[in-house]
Design a protein that fits this description.
Blueprint (H helix, E strand, L loop, with lengths): L7 H9 L13 E6 L3 H4 L15 H14 L4 E6 L45 E5 L10 H7 L4 E7 L1 H14 L3 E5 L3 E2 L3 H15 L1 E3 L1 H9 L2
Parallel strand pairs: 1-2, 1-4, 2-3, 4-5, 4-6, 5-7
Helix pairs in contact: 1-6, 3-7, 5-6
């Protein structure tokens, strides 16, 4: 294996800049899937141990993309994680640690489970799913919604890049969707995880693009 002293970000920027890099491209009809943009992961003031931020304008960009999608009659989906008081519905995923900040202690009705107050949500038109595992496709109605709307492109926002975004991208591609990740709209706990996984997504599972490119796509009649 060739040794490299480059940082994860340098490797990502190098691969992203390759003019011959193949792309899946946008299809004919997209849906936006906003993953776990909830206080446990985005509210740095209240939950500094578990929240994270890569781009300070992330939620502003996400709101913009969602509004453009709504204007075109495209599906906008939000997911969040929350568990019953016993944590039993977290399954084996919730057994590694058990502290107040642990995954299985994001309880229904708690502040940690609530979607971020900065999000603009249309609670009549948008779909909101509670998920228990990393992928938003696992045991939710997401696939049925996308089939009903004849979606061929899935745009992913939220976090974390190394966890639920990656799981969503793998499942999205596996189901035959063109998968798009706006770079500024996803985040992780540390830039090393973030850029290492953006690199892997870019090479294998998704088109990782500037948010401006997604805005242009959604703004085109």
């Amino acid at each position: 294996m060739e040794r490299s002293d480059k940082t994860a970000r340098q490797l990502y920027d190098e691969i992203k800049a390759n003019p011959t890099r193949a792309r899946f491209g946008f299809g004919q009809k997209a849906a936006i899937v906003n993953i776990d943009i909830q206080n446990a992961y985005t509210n740095l003031a209240e939950f500094p141990k578990t929240a994270y931020e890569t781009d300070p304008n992330q939620i502003q960009y996400i709101n913009q993309l969602n509004q453009l999608a709504r204007q075109k009659g495209l599906p906008v989906v939000f997911t969040y994680v929350a568990y019953m008081e016993s944590g039993a519905d977290a399954g084996v995923w919730g057994t590694r640690t058990n502290t107040p900040d642990s995954l299985q202690n994001i309880k229904f009705g708690s502040r940690r489970a609530e979607l971020d107050d900065r999000l603009v949500i249309d609670r009549i038109q948008d779909a909101i799913y509670c998920k228990k595992m990393p992928s938003p496709f696992f045991e939710t109605s997401l696939q049925s919604l996308l089939v009903w709307h004849q979606i061929d492109t899935v745009i992913l926002t939220g976090g974390s890049t190394s966890g639920c975004i990656r799981a969503a991208a793998v499942d999205s591609l596996s189901r035959g969707y063109r998968t798009i990740v706006p770079e500024e709209c996803v985040a992780d706990k540390h830039e090393s995880y973030h850029f290492a996984n953006l690199t892997d997504l870019l090479l294998k599972y998704a088109d990782v693009v500037p948010v401006s490119e997604v805005i242009t796509y959604l703004s085109t009649p």
